[in-house]
Design a protein that fits this description.
Radius of gyration of chain B: 18 Å
Number of helices of chain B: 9
Oligomer: heterodimer
Radius of gyration of chain A: 30 Å
Strand order of the largest sheet of chain A: 1-2
Helix content of chain B: 25-40%
Strand content of chain A: under 5%
Largest interface: A-B, 24 and 34 residues
Strand content of chain B: 25-35%
Largest sheet of chain B: 6 strands, mixed
Structural class of chain A: mainly alpha
Strand order of the largest sheet of chain B: 8-9-10-3-11-12
Distance between the termini of chain B: 36 Å
Order of helices and strands of chain B: EEEHEEEEHEHHHEHEHEEHH
Distance between the termini of chain A: 71 Å
Largest sheet of chain A: 2 strands, antiparallel
Number of helices of chain A: 14
Number of strands of chain B: 12
Shape of chain A: flat
Number of strands of chain A: 2
Helix content of chain A: over 70%
Chain lengths: 317, 269
């Protein structure tokens, strides 16, 4: 009996030792995640149903969309939207940098005026501003500049009013974005630059601003895309932008939905172009951040499009 | 290599001439009601190494930062090479100089920071040559000197690395190369090894020792007593905004007369 017991002990001990080896040799199987597959399936069905409905519902009138998509009058509206956005963003950001620098200045007058500017124009809806600027004539019918007199009703066109209003809006919002970015740069950077004998302007342009850009660019991407869409409000002044150009057509032929789709698709295309541009700008300013090289455009696209399986770690710095 | 900075004197233990490159007189600095510096008088002979010691809050770093006008003094003056830093003597007043003049003065004084403060968006070489480009050196010549300096600090071939790809000790060595690239007549070190992992302290102190041996005038704020003992010509012990004790390291470090200095040395040794 005892001999048998000790034999069993020995066998068990042997099995245990064999067990460790088996464990080491065993293949590791990841946990199954049936819930994920279920969720993905449900979402796919919903998406498919939505797509089917959109493509088969005759009221979308895709043939009408196709017919009007490249009409000259719509192209003209598209052009207005593009250049107005570009002008507003470029001039607005130029002012925004100034406002942000004033706000960070030690001069209390400059800082307070900058604060008041930002506070006021962030509070006024762009649409209200637009209407105010276009009615400037009732406030100041004429402006005397010494050598000449301007009649404001002629001087400020509808597009001009839109440009002024939206530029001020961009200046106020971008000033806050830029100020945040500048504050994110460690003070030691400017000190090190000073100790090397760099002047103020050069420190700002070459040392501080490039390091603030990674904080500024993503928020600015949002801002520019928002502005692209915000230009649509100039249609209330009957300025001939993308939205107004389709409104003109559907007010005559009542093909409202397909023409709104034309505008929608163009807005999506422009926004996509801006997003791609933002990616390249971000990659440029990511130099020296993190040890890894930044992912290529294709890696990012694949990581974002990959519906299933292991999501590889691709960081867009 | 030897022609890049002043030639090494014959005996390194007795470096320095009688001429004071840096003269500090009656220097005061307040932050609000906090009087950080309360009348500092100090001479730093040309070609010598001065180590500033003292408990935290004693004003060492503030004193150093007054030397290149990163802090504006509230009284007294700092003179480097016979020129008052940051001010112009005008009858009965010292008028603060315009930015451009201060910038020009700073270019003659190198500085190395505790947190390295390398420019992270620029490569190692770009970091080193930035100051020379401002001084009007051609990019090609600046880059050649940059590579030579990198070799001297033991980082040959790392020109195109970004600071974040280097260890702390390597970054600080690049920062030292950057600070001397413009051939300054004086270099300030603000606790250059305090942010480093212990195993990297030696490599940075080694580069500083080499630099001292070339006859460059140095003012060093540090807690490395060994470095002070070995390299310093003059040790200055600050306490509560005044110089409590100063002299050659053999005196100040081994036989301090001041009680606070004795306590401090007992604590750090």
């Amino acid at each position: 009996m005892s001999a048998q017991a000790s034999l069993e002990d020995a066998v068990q001990a042997l099995e245990r030792r064999a067990g460790d080896e088996q464990l080491v040799a065993a293949r590791l199987v990841a946990r199954r995640k049936p819930g994920q597959w279920l969720a993905a399936g449900v979402v796919l069905v919903i998406v498919a149903a939505g797509l089917y409905s959109v493509l088969t519902n005759p009221h979308f009138q895709w043939n009408v969309v196709r017919y009007f998509f490249f009409r000259p009058s719509i192209m003209l509206g598209l052009l207005t939207t593009i250049w107005l956005t570009a002008a507003v963003v470029v001039v607005g950001y130029a002012f925004g940098i100034g406002v942000a620098v004033m706000r960070l200045s030690r001069n209390p007058v400059l800082a307070s005026v900058s604060f008041a500017f930002t506070w006021f124009f962030r509070s006024v809806p762009p649409l209200v501003q637009l209407l105010l600027w276009s009615n400037l004539g009732s406030l100041y019918p004429t402006i005397h500049l010494g050598f000449t007199t301007i009649h404001t009703t002629h001087a400020v066109s509808d597009i001009g009013a839109a440009f002024i209003g939206l530029t001020i809006d961009v200046a106020a919002f971008s000033a806050e974005i830029i100020r945040g970015g500048l504050l994110s740069v460690d003070h030691g950077q400017a000190e090190a630059a000073k100790s090397l004998g760099l002047g103020k302007g050069r420190i700002f342009r070459r040392i501080v601003l490039p390091q603030a850009m990674p904080a500024i660019v993503p928020a600015s991407g949002n801002m520019v895309i928002g502005m692209l869409k915000a230009t649509a409000i100039i249609s209330v002044l009957s300025a001939h932008d993308l939205l107004y150009s389709v409104q003109l057509i559907y007010s005559q032929n009542y093909l409202i939905i397909p023409l709104l789709l034309v505008a929608t698709i163009w807005y999506v295309i422009l926004t996509t172009a801006l997003s791609i541009g933002q990616y390249f700008v971000e990659r440029h300013y990511a130099r020296g951040r993190g040890g890894r090289s930044t992912p290529t455009w294709w890696q990012v696209a694949r990581a974002n499009l990959r519906p299933f399986g292991v999501r590889r770690e691709v960081a867009v710095a | 290599m030897s022609d890049t900075i002043a030639p090494a004197p014959e005996a390194t233990s007795q470096r320095g001439t009688d001429r004071a490159l840096v003269r500090i007189r009656g220097l005061e600095k307040h932050f609000g009601l906090n009087r950080v510096l309360r009348g500092i008088d100090l001479d730093v002979p040309e070609g010598s190494v001065t180590v500033l010691l003292g408990p935290s809050g004693s004003g060492k770093s503030t004193l150093l930062r007054c030397v290149n006008h990163l802090e504006r003094p509230d009284g007294g003056f700092v003179e480097v090479g016979g020129e008052i830093i940051g001010f112009r003597h005008d009858g009965r007043v010292l008028r603060e100089l315009p930015d451009r003049a201060v910038t020009r003065q700073r270019a003659r004084i190198g500085m190395v920071f505790q947190q390295f403060n390398l420019f992270p968006h620029k490569t190692v070489l770009e970091n080193i040559i930035e100051g020379q480009l401002v001084a009007g050196v051609r990019r090609k010549d600046a880059a050649a000197r940059g590579s030579e300096l990198l070799e001297r600090v033991g980082l040959a071939g790392r020109e195109d690395s970004y600071p974040r790809q280097l260890s702390g000790g390597q970054q600080q060595r690049v920062a030292i190369a950057r600070a001397v690239a413009n051939r300054p007549e004086l270099i300030l070190f603000d606790e250059p090894t305090s942010a480093l992992d212990p195993e990297m302290v030696g490599e940075v102190l080694g580069v500083m020792k080499d630099l001292a041996a070339t006859g460059l005038t140095m003012i060093v704020v540090t807690h490395e007593i060994g470095f002070a003992r070995e390299v310093a010509d003059q040790v200055v012990f600050l306490d509560d905004g005044v110089i409590a004790e100063s002299g050659p390291p053999s005196d100040v470090l081994t036989r301090p007369r001041n009680e606070r200095a004795r306590d401090f040395l007992a604590a750090v040794l």
